[in-house]
Amino acid sequence: HADETTLQVLKEAGRTAQSKSYMWVFATGETSRAPIRIFRYNAGRNGKVAADFLGDYKGYLHTDGYSGYGKVEGISRCACWSHVRRYFVDALPKDSKNPESTLPKIGIAYCNKLFDIESDLKALSPEDRKTKRLELELPVLEAFWSWVEDTLPKVLSKSKIGKALQYALNHKDWLMTYLKDGNCAISNNLAENSIRPFTVGRKNWLFSASPAGADASAVVFSIVETAKANGLNPHKYLEYLLREIPSMEIVKNKEELDSLLPWDPTIQAACAVRN
Q: Is 151 buried (19+), middle (13-18) or exposed (0-12) by CB count in 10 A?
């Protein structure tokens, strides 16, 4: 999973203080046994950032519709059905009784049906989930695409419903990718939820003073969000790290770092969130 959001960095060489920079997040999939969230600051939004980070990775990449991810080679794109639903929600008129609300409501209903089925399949193994998706969701998808292709010529292309239908059709292949593997997700909510604490915090701190500060923020958010993804209390985990690291010979023996990873049994025992 990958996502990115804007960040203002005041003292970037060769750029004005008002320039937009970006914080990126890369996350392992929902079925990963060792969930990881890595944040990376970069001055730009060029897809090369994702390509450089992912390197030789081969597999599925969940994203929104941003074209920059097309620069990542060797991956199969999984587009986000939450984004599709959002387009239909945005197309709803303020007056729900307005006849123009009918088409957006139909689009939303299709999306809701898919998400309802996904909720029922959550506990299944990836193999069984794939089988059930083909059985239960593929007919819904086929009906949805038939409706999209039939409806699109009948609406104004620049209207909100026209844009919603066109967005879905433009990303049809990527929106169908998740059917190929039960480990894939129907949305990119995982990445969006991972980066949301940063976007909320940004409303308070507004900017980073320097690239070094932005990099430091990326490190902290990587640690905290990975801890949360592994069921840890981030405050306890940070306390544990700050207490243990000074007495460790990490420079001489980097393998010692393995004992500090969030999924280590000792870490889990000491820092896990207790219900």
A: middle
